[in-house]
Amino acid sequence: MQKTKTVCRLCLFFVMVFILTGCWDREELEDKSYVIGLGLDRSEEKDKIKVTMLLANPEVGSMQGGGGSTEKPREIITFDANDFIAAKATANAVISRNISYELLRIFIVSEEFARDSIFPNTFSEVLKDKEIRLNSYIAVSKEKASQYFLHNKPKMETRPHKYFQFMIDHGIENGLIPDSNLFRYFQTTERGSDLFLAMYTTAKRQKNPEIKREDEYTAGELNATGELDDTQFIGSAVFKNGVMFDTLTGQETRTINILDDTTNIKDILVNIPDPFSEKKKQFAARIMKTENNKVKMNLKGITPKIFISIPLQIEIMSNPSMVNFAKEKNQQIIKKSIAAHLEKVNEDLLKKTQTKFKGIPYPLPIYSKKYFRTIQEYKKFNWAKAYPRADIRVKVDITIVDYGNRTKKAKKLGG
């Protein structure tokens, strides 16, 4: 009897081993076609959308594909569909490999469609597809998304997933574009009081654009020439209740990113007016944010009072006036000038969001929860109505960690 039980256990063990080592559900890399970017446009057909898929070939540039591969690194396909989830099956009518959203990195939505009131309901389909991750990004293009992907031809990066990864990561780090992932979009839409900022992009440069400061552009306005791709990521598209209604420049987007402690902005390069220059010159500086902002509120009465303190470290990178910063007096002048300039930039932008946008451009209400005893009190306060009439004061605490090396006037050539 005991021997029979032992034999049964051994048989069961071998059966389990065979089951665990099975490979019937294995999928080869070459069997799939991965959608890296998904474009959304309004269709001319009623109750339909125009879907554009940027499909990457995973073998190009990889060891498996080899250096002599003649396969294209990408394919682009555009067609009308009821939604972009079932569109995967439709696309297989012309794409030989099984289409997957597992590596979907970015949604490109045309500005025309993003401003349409039907956009939020259409885009909510994202939540129904298990392959789409909420850390994917949403960006708004000036042109149609179908045209955007066709004109987007990177010179340095053959693989499209690497191109978008580098452009997005570096743009968020220097603050010129917002961290506009899907999670933030749906979270902001649910709250109702906040504005959502999406990346603003285009693959067509504006003809004869006005020359501005390095961070005051929006996508397409930077007059860069040479042997390069025309695609630009700078500035942000402003959404309210899930619908786009305005834009912000790169400078305004960067200011919001510094106010928002949930972003990854830490180290940026900017130009700041030189207080020692009579010709309104500017000096280059590195701004480093190493601490969170301090926010205090007085929410009693008709006018809520909000006090925001922003701690920043500054490294002066240039000295066009050749001022001697070894002198304590000059150090105090430059420190006060930088603080006053940044405070004005912040207060002007916040005033614009109160009067023109009538919405909060970052999750400021989160700081207010400690001032309410219950969730009911917090909801009753109604940030959407209270924010436009709030009195907001910004104080920038400057610590200059480096004044640069040039402290004396340069000698004339040949002197």
Radius of gyration: 27 Å
Q: How many H/I helical runs?
A: 11
Helix/strand class = alpha/beta
Low-confidence stretches: 63-68, 409-415
Helical proportion? 25-40%
- By DSSP, the count of extended strands is 14
Number of domains: 2
Shape: globular
- Element order, helices and strands? HEEEHEEHHEHHHEEEHEEEEHHHE
- In terms of DSSP E residues, the strand content is 25-35%
Mean pLDDT value = 84
**Kindly, what is the distance between the CA atoms of the first and last residues, rounded to a whole number of angstroms?**
109 Å
What does this structure look like?
With 415 residues, the protein is of the alpha/beta class. The chain folds into two domains: 231 residues, no CATH class; 150 residues, Nutrient germinant receptor protein C, domain 3 (GMP Synthetase, Chain A, domain 3). 28% of the residues lie in helices and 26% in strands. It contains eleven helices and 14 strands. The strands form two sheets. Strands 1, 2, 3, 4, 5, 6, 7, 8 and 9 form a nine-stranded mixed sheet that branches. Strands 10, 11, 12, 13 and 14 form a five-stranded mixed sheet that branches. The radius of gyration is 27 Å and the shape is globular. The termini are far apart.
